[in-house]
C-alpha cells in the first residue's frame, strides 16, 4: 500500500459541494483507505494498493465530477516523492512570508509543455528550479504588492494550462506530516 496525496485544482471551500467531508466521501466510496484532508483547499491524503498514477488521477477526477460536479484537475503525488522533495531542502535558509512566498507548482504526470524555465522571469519572482522527480517548479514570490500576479505564474498557466496546481511550501510540509502520521 502506498500513501498518496491528491492535490485538487479549483477547490473553493465556500462551495457546499467542495467541503472536506464531501471530498473525503468521494475517496472513501472509491475504496481508498486512511482518507484524510489537509487544510480546506483540496489536499486529500489516502492509501491505495494501485500505483498507476495517471489512472488514479483519471478515476478520482471522474468521481469528483460525477458525484460533486467538480471539474477542476487532480494531481497525485506519493509520500516517497514528497519526502524526497522536502529532504532536498530547495529553500535553504528562507522563511515563508509576504515578501518571500515559497511556492511549489506541481505538474500533472505527462503534462504538455516544458520543464525549462522562462527566459525573463518577473522581477518579483526568484525561480529556484524544477525538481524532475516530483515534477514541480519551485519559486520564491514577492507578494507584498496586492492584486498583481507575477509573470512567472502567468507563464506557468499559459505553458501548462489546467495540468498544474500550486501549493505553498508550508502546505507541502503539512501534507507530508499528515502522510507520515
UniProtKB/TrEMBL annotation:
SUPFAM superfamilies: SP0830-like. Pfam families: DUF1697. Coiled coil: none annotated. It comes from the Bacteria. This is DUF1697 domain-containing protein. It comes from Ornithinimicrobium ciconiae.
